[in-house]
Write a structure and sequence with these properties.
It contains 14 helices and no strands. It is mainly alpha-helical. The protein has two domains: 84 residues, no CATH class; 148 residues, no CATH class.
Length: 248
């Protein structure tokens, strides 16, 4: 995030500050008023599900079936039964059905299917053999390879598709190398969000609003390379010096 902000600030723009924006957002914030019962419940459920997901190593031995996905699913289902300040259900199926991004779900599931196909056809074994032939031992070069792979996929498709394809590949390779896959999967997931070069997927939106595609490619290349390197270094340092991170 800091790299993105720094690069955005250093872009050659005609103005560096849009006057009046601070007052505009301050007024908008005041118009929201105090948090209502439904908002408090929604925030509490989100925080609870996030805590259950990240704190799983502390209770995994006692509740092995409570995986992060089930934590989010359980908290989401509670929204259908809890009432807001008006006494109405916080979430109805009609609202959920009309607001769910079904296209993204289809894209994500198809990406997982593609990743499984890569594994079942034996392609992952060949790729693992190629990686193993480079004598990677799970250090910085391994993390950098996975991050670059995820970033490249994201550049050619979308962040979601890149994550759904790269995760099974990273999982299979790390298993073949005898490594714990979770830290490397974390690195690949973050790197899948470090694509800024080609105007594809959501990156095409600013081009549609007038951003010069050549400028996006030029500056996006710099940001993509920097963020990929920083993610690789950060994850490697966490694996080396944060025991909990490397033993998830």
């Amino acid at each position: 995030m800091s790299v993105n902000l720094a690069c955005l600030w250093l872009l050659p723009l005609p103005v560096k500050e849009l006057r009046g924006t601070k007052a505009y957002f301050a007024e908008m914030y005041r118009s929201f008023g105090p948090m209502r019962r439904g908002e408090i419940i929604g925030l509490s459920l989100f925080v609870l599900s996030a805590l259950l997901a990240f704190a799983r190593p502390f209770f995994a031995n006692f509740l092995p079936g409570l995986k992060p996905a089930y934590s989010f699913l359980l908290c989401g289902l509670l929204m259908f039964f809890l009432k807001d300040e008006k006494g109405e259900a916080m979430l109805t199926w009609k609202y959920a059905e009309s607001h769910v991004m079904w296209g993204m779900i289809a894209l994500f599931s198809s990406g997982l299917a593609l990743g499984k196909m890569v594994i079942d056809t034996g392609a992952i074994s060949r790729l693992a053999d190629m990686v193993a032939a480079t004598h990677l031992t799970g250090g910085f070069l391994t993390v950098l390879l996975f991050c670059a792979f995820s970033t490249l996929l994201a550049e050619l498709s979308s962040n979601t598709a890149a994550a759904s394809i790269s995760i099974p590949v990273v999982f299979g390779i790390t298993k073949s190398l005898g490594l714990s896959p979770i830290p490397y999967v974390f690195a690949a997931i973050v790197a899948a969000n470090c694509a800024y070069i080609l105007p594809l997927s959501t990156r095409a939106i600013p081009v549609g609003y007038g951003l010069d595609a050549a400028g996006q490619i030029r500056f996006g290349t710099l940001v993509s390379v920097l963020t990929c390197l920083i993610v690789s270094v950060t994850c490697w340092l966490c694996m080396e010096y944060v025991p909990l991170f490397s033993h998830l």
